[in-house]
Amino acid sequence: MDFHRFANPARFMRMSIPLLRVLAPAAAVLLALGLVLGFQVPPDYKQGMTVLIMFIHVPAAWMAMFAYAFLAAASAVALVWRHPLAEVAAVEAAPLGAGFTALCLITGSLWGAKMWGTWWVWDARLTSVLVLFFLYLGYLALAHAFDDRQRGLRAASVLALVGAVNLPIIKFSVDWWNTLHQPASVFRLGGPTLSTVYLWPLLTMALGFTLLFAWLLVLRMRAHLMERKIETLRLVAIETRQTVQPQEALS
Amino acid sequence: MSEYLAMGGYAGFIWPAYAAAVAILGGMTFLSVRRHRAAAETLAEIEKARKA
User: Fold this and answer.
1) Residue A157 included in any domain
2) Is the ipTM value over 0.90, yes or no?
3) Hey, which residues 22-51 in chain B have their CB within 8 Å of chain A?
4) What is the domain range of residue A76?
5) What is the pLDDT along chain B (52 residues), one digit of tens a residue?
6) How far apart are CA A113 and CA A107, in angstroms?
7) CA B27 to chain centre
């Protein structure tokens, strides 16, 4: 029997308890601090107070991409090494990534409605992020489409890997094509062009979003592992009942 | 105060953006915490029954 398959989730269950205790308050403090800093900024000379939308939109967009990179990496580990925790991590990261992507699209649309005069355009950046959202949905649909969980996860992992090609397309869409969406102002060669007045609240929020993702991911992975254990224990209970009953009937 | 809340005329776009953040991030948090708690409680019950 291959014991490491069982040992790793067991160790994760133990080691994740202190992790949860750190991540939850850290995320809460950073998000609160980000809001306090964010709501004190002066209006931007062009976009006025709609700059406040950026403190949600940009971290949400970063997390949408980070979560997908995580999903693709975990899927690769699950496919190649059959690591039992990797597929749990992948399947639990996907709904969170979809949530961040939806938030990015909604807040971007609200900002665009006022600043561009349109809720939506089919430019390369917006379209590739919409594709990212559908990749998340496709992954989740595929992962839950089979009665045999293993088969569904295998198929979904392949989709996650193929879909990773979309990440550089999103990142560089604003350079490769003429987009209504503005080019990068933080992660770019030559450093950020964003004023530090806006940079600090943005980075604080981004770190808060990252810790929130980490906390929820660990929480969901633990829930997933416990649900599987419950399933197994119930099956064992049914089997022992079935084997015990005939003997009881004889006596 | 009401002038600040008006956000220079952009209130109708800024507050819905924050409402969406609260709804989505809060919703994900609520569902994850609830699921974790339910699984932990069920598992504890089963293990207690097994020992008994």
Assistant:
1) yes
2) yes
3) 24-25, 27-29, 32-33, 35-36, 38-40, 42-43, 46-47, 50
4) 28-181+196-243
5) 788 888 888 889 999 999 999 999 999 999 999 999 999 999 999 989 888 7
6) 10
7) 4
